[in-house]
Recover the amino acids of this structure.
């Protein structure tokens, strides 16, 4: 009871007025990281489509889709996505001094984990909706891949 009122007053005066601007600042790098995940998925699927249109090889298509399934675990390919979120380090260090925000690395790591999880979900959904082994008509495969990609991105 003795601490409640001063704590409430402190939060109301010193923290609450800044929450909206803090959230907006933090969402910039987070949003750009997730946008990068989306772009990476889009780019990788487009490469699969282009490769199939050149070769018309169903075996190669199957290999490419299998490789797509490893995308979330490819640190090299996911690195540009993760780098976008590393900007939080600077933003959070400023907050650390003003609001005693600790565990900055944890916030960044969790955000990157969510990005990897999002990519895992995207490639899994893509695989479930598109199975090269079920594609009898190779003429429609590229169109089908594109439709599945758009569905996943939606």
């Amino acid at each position: 009871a003795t601490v409640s009122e001063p704590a409430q007053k402190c939060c109301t005066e010193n923290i609450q007025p800044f929450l909206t601007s803090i959230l907006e600042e933090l969402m910039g790098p987070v949003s750009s990281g997730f946008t990068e995940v989306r772009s990476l998925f889009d780019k990788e699927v487009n490469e699969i489509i282009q490769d199939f249109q050149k070769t018309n090889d169903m075996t190669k298509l199957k290999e490419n889709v299998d490789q797509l399934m490893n995308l979330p675990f490819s640190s090299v390919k996911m690195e540009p996505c993760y780098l976008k979120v590393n900007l939080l380090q600077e933003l959070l260090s400023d907050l650390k001094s003003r609001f005693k925000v600790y565990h900055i690395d944890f916030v960044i790591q969790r955000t990157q984990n969510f990005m990897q999880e999002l990519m895992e979900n995207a490639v899994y959904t893509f695989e479930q909706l598109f199975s090269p082994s079920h594609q009898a008509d190779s003429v429609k495969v590229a169109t089908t891949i594109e439709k599945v990609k758009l569905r996943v991105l939606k």
Observations:
- Residues 3-153 form one domain.
- The radius of gyration is 22 Å.
- The helical segments are 4-55, 58-69, 75-85, 88-99, 104-129, 141-153.
- The mean pLDDT is 88.
